[in-house]
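Hi R.,

Here's the chain you asked about this morning:
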Amino acid sequence: MSLDISEIFYSLQGESTWAGLACVFVRLSGCNLSCSWCDTTYAAADPTPMTLGQIMDKVATYDCPMVEITGGEPLIQSRTPSLISALLEKGYQVLLETNGSLSIASVDPACTRIIDVKCPLSGEAGSFLFDNFNHITARDEIKFVIGSRQDYEYAASIIKTHLGHHPREKIHICPVFDLIELSDLASWILKDRLGARLSLQQHKIIWDPDLRGV
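And the predicted structure, written out as tokens:
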């Protein structure tokens, strides 16, 4: 059996606590959500079927110890947990980026699960599966993509009510690129003593923000 792949490429990690480190990105095709600010709509079209072996061989060509499984939404494909386990068995540091609407329970907890909680501006608020908070470990990271004051307040309420014991350096407030004033967002975080990290998309600062494969 195969997985539907959008692209596999080598770049610097642009987000999360791993930002700035070299990483191989395996972008799976397809998504179950349609966020207003989505920057990877192309991942929904023209997938390339690849077996686990073919993916592993392609990843190995980059000679890089870190791999991120991303999308689209990786967990809509049933074989994604098997891919993650295979990469872990080979000794890779594995990250999974998921939109939080599907259960992470089947994903090996040795993988760092980066879980997005959708805020109102995305148009997908309410999609988050709150049972995922029962499966997270201190290794996992939580991300809120913020495009407005309303988004920020929504994120702050969830952080305060559900993430009080999660490591604060693993909770990310991520501005929608070029949509919200960074100084405003920084001041809100400081004023509220939010206990979260302001995370910028480094790859969009380094390269053209519309460039693929970076």
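The chain is about 20% helix and 25% strand.

Let me know if you need anything else.
M.
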